[in-house]
Write a structure and sequence with these properties.
mainly alpha, 162 residues, 2 domains, 9 helices
């Protein structure tokens, strides 16, 4: 339980910060007060001048809509061409595209692992777990087949190179 408490304390301020990134792609669904608060949070967090960021954002918002940009990646690609004029926004979009949108992929991996490695089979080595994942879920997962082959040869077939 201590681990959960430590993690919650460590990341307690991330909610408002991650929500502030909405202003970069969803500003059309926000009112002016929400936009100002989001820009202020981002400016303070990343040590930017709030006024400069607001000016860049006001000008950028028009470009974003005129160019029909649909995502942070699209915006970042476009900003790369006008980087000097929108350096603060370029930096924020660079951060935005690196943030994970969800933890589903990670959770899916743990779920697959739990299907194989249980309390009953808690002494299984990593290579054997990889083999079991291949057997259960096919080759949709990427594995180092050379290492798996060596493991099977040495530990399962008891084959040693002379």
């Amino acid at each position: 339980m201590q681990i959960v408490t430590d993690l919650n304390r460590r990341f307690e301020n991330l909610g408002p910060l991650t929500n502030s990134f909405r202003v970069l792609t969803k500003f059309d669904k926000m009112n002016e007060k929400e936009i100002d608060e989001a820009l202020s949070t981002l400016a303070k967090t990343y040590d930017m001048d709030e006024n400069d960021l607001e000016i860049q954002f006001i000008n950028w918002r028009v470009i974003y809509q005129d160019e029909s940009l649909r995502s942070g990646v699209d915006a970042l690609e476009h900003l790369a061409t006008v980087r000097t004029d929108y350096n603060l926004l370029y930096r924020l979009y660079s951060i935005l595209v690196a943030l994970p949108y969800a933890t589903a992929e990670c959770e899916r991996g743990f779920s697959l692992m739990n299907d194989i490695k249980s309390d009953v089979r808690n002494r299984i080595g990593n290579s054997l777990i990889d083999l079991m994942l291949i057997a259960m879920y096919g080759d949709e997962h990427e594995f180092d087949y050379d290492i798996l082959g060596e493991y099977v040869a040495e530990n399962i077939w008891h084959y040693k190179k002379a």
